[in-house]
Write a structure and sequence with these properties.
It is built from seven helices and 14 strands. With about 325 residues, it is an alpha/beta fold. It has one domain: 3-Layer(aba) Sandwich (Rossmann fold). It has a nine-stranded mixed beta sheet with strand order 6-7-8-5-4-9-12-14-13, with helices on both faces. Strand 4, helix 2 and strand 5 form a beta-alpha-beta unit. The longest helix has 13 residues. The chain starts with a strand and ends with a strand. The relative contact order is 0.15. Bound molecules: S-adenosylmethionine. S-adenosylmethionine binds next to helix 1. The site of S-adenosylmethionine has 24 residues, from helix 1.
Length: about 325
């Protein structure tokens, strides 16, 4: 890791360039198997709260990245949209597995500019902002929630777009225009004040009637009870068995959401489940069912065991 102290150091913000190295054993059963490596350089902050947390790399995004890289067929040729994208790692992985379109978003402007820097550094997004009409006036700031903004910023590259999208003021028409096959989110279930807005966004994006995908998506998930039937899933399987036992249904035209999360506060998580239920969304815990390969063996500070993988869809 190379530490880059910038002018913000005096304010306590220390920037670092981190290299995330994903190692792919070509054949896990063969001892002398070749190992492929994918290295993703990322600018991030060592101050966890800079950019409303979005300039740090959170373990949930490492887990979601491992998930995407472990099950590339679920994402290739799909339109993928991420909420609360932070440093942009998930988008870089989606691009790597050849998602047909990758749209990243965040409500925080400093996070968004750091994300763009990271995309550029990974040879992805270099174009200038492309303004898009929105109802959201204020840049994301919890103190300013409720304001109206006339523009949101979109940066586009051939593959990746970055969208300034605070959940509080994401209009229905903008969300419906995105038409993702797959919605993703890593470590976005933590602030009780934001959760109703996040779930509203999800509900619009997952609405089968209004937000149906242009391309067929792939569903891989288990039987769903009510959202309060939330459970830990059913143990480890290989990929095919996991998909079969989890009810892999092949192509479907309905959008799906995959969220990775650490449950820090049970009450907050229960609040999320209650909101999901109220919006008539289905939620399944895939944690034990669809385990991603361990592609970050050297990242010792990353505790995979605390991760949850959730699938959401409309009922
Ligand atoms: C804990 S960070 C996770 C970042 C990234 N997904 C990761 O796992 O590394 C939460 C992210 O959600 C964004 N966020 C929080 N509240 C938001 C809101 N109300 N609207 C849009 N984005 C929000 C933050 O700016 C931040 O990037």
């Amino acid at each position: 890791m190379i530490s880059l102290k910038d002018d913000n150091t005096v304010k306590g913000n220390v920037r670092a360039l981190k290299y995330i190295s994903f190692l792919f054993p070509d054949d896990a059963n063969c001892e002398d198997a070749m190992v492929r490596k994918m290295v993703v350089p990322l600018h991030c902050s060592l101050n966890m709260l800079e950019g409303d947390t979005g300039c740090s790399i959170w373990p949930a995004s490492l887990f979601l990245s491992e998930f995407i890289l472990s099950f590339p067929d679920m994402f290739s040729s799909k339109t993928c949209f991420e909420v609360g994208s932070g440093v942009g790692l998930v988008g870089i992985c989606l691009s790597h597995v050849k998602a047909s379109k990758v749209i990243l978003s965040d409500g925080d402007l400093s996070t968004l500019s750091n994300m763009k820097l990271n995309l550029k550094m990974n040879q992805m997004s270099t174009e200038d902002d492309e303004p898009v009409t929105s109802e959201c006036l204020d840049s994301f700031d919890h103190a300013q929630i409720g304001g109206i903004r006339t523009e949101i910023d979109i940066i586009s590259s051939p593959q990746v777009k970055c969208l300034h999208l605070p959940w509080e003021c994401a209009s229905e028409s903008i969300l419906q225009g995105l038409k993702p096959d797959i919605i993703l989110g890593a470590d976005v279930i933590y602030d009780p004040l934001c959760l109703p807005h996040l779930v509203r966004v999800l509900s619009i994006l997952l609405d089968k009637t209004k937000s149906s995908s242009r391309l067929p998506g792939v569903g891989c998930g288990g039987a769903i009870g009510s959202s309060h039937d939330y459970s830990d899933g059913c143990g480890s399987h290989d990929v095919v068995a996991a998909c079969n036992s989890a009810g892999y249904a092949g192509p479907t035209e309905h959008p799906m959401a995959y969220f990775s999360s650490v449950i820090r506060n049970a009450n907050t998580f229960d609040h999320f489940l209650a909101l999901v239920d109220k919006e008539n969304l289905a939620i399944t815990d895939l944690t034990g069912t669809l385990q991603p390969a361990s592609l970050l063996p050297y990242m010792q500070s990353y505790d995979r065991l605390s991760m949850r993988l959730l699938k959401l869809s409309s009922k």
